[in-house]
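Case study 2.
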Amino acid sequence: MAVDSRTRFWLTIFLGMMTAIAPLSTDMYLPALPEAQAAFGVSTSLVQMTLTMTTLGMALGQILAGPLSDLIGRRRPLLIGMFVFIGATVGCVFAADIYFFLFFRFCAGFAGASGIVIARAIARDVCAGAELTRFFAVLMMVNGFAPIIAPVIGGQILLFANWRATFVLLTLIGVFLAGATLIYRETLPKEQRSANMTDSLRKFPVLLRDRYFLGHCLLQCFVFGAFFSYLSGSSFVFQNVYGVSPQVYSMIFAVIGAGLLLAGILPARLAGRVPDIIMLKYAVLVPLAGSALLLLGFCFSAPLAVVLILLFLTVVPLSVMGAASFSLALSRQGKNAGSASALIGCFSMLLGACMMPVVGIAGDHTAIPMGIVMLVGYGLGVLVFYGMISSDHL
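Prediction:
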């Protein structure tokens, strides 16, 4: 579907906001994790489960939302998802028990998944080739603004309100996104939609038998697993191990988020001049080296400044990896874009959801588990890249 430059501009803003649901739902809440732990009187691993349930909901929700958008179009599933997200987030505000809170966090993630997966499918509706890479890169940049501002907002909220106020703000964001969805014009014509839901679901085994596509799914799985271990562990590492305040932690997180945002410029600038596969190669090799040095730094109690430099080097290339991998994976899928986006999106969050409680298994005063999980994740990502992806481009 061809769109003019003005429509594409507003569409980019709209899709960027939709994909920002994930970092907004997790990153804004990160500075409040220790306070929420104290409020509920639970262990570190259990309070980190609140992040796990959100991420798991987002992973599984994409499996439903992607095929559904191939069947009935992009707009209606988005709107339904936003309304459920609003209701679930309100539930988080009033949940008095950790287990009710976990339930509502899962529901919010499940509903918010519609924005993540359908945004990528819409990008595939309107772009192809190098233009698709540029579009994904711009989305990563718009989306990258959320990790910068979200923890800063979350940290400032704690200065004058308790941690539940974070979810009041998330509810208002959901209302705004629902309003934006009402304005959005459908980008998937009826003649290009799937015949029925069964037809959409049958695409999953076909896609998973595609070795190249499965390689991208596994790459996203391992790399984002490493990234989500950073998300769940960094709050305790910086506040409990290095003794910084929630506000200072939010600024540290924001600086790394700014790096993610700036790194997102590279794919947009280099698309069409540097092959996506080359960008992807260095976007997995650099974090592997960075995570190895980071683990050594944790083992030998490196100063905070050194840890910050190594963490920056390890996390920031994620923007390049995401844009290049998504573009390479979806560029071959055509009308299966919704289902393909759902699968790769699910893989990108599934391992991260499982790893979040593992990071806190040794308690909240050690950084070693986070370092180990990050190194293993990036290491497996590099193995998948060379074993299943790069060989297809020789």
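The two ends are 31 Å apart (CA to CA).
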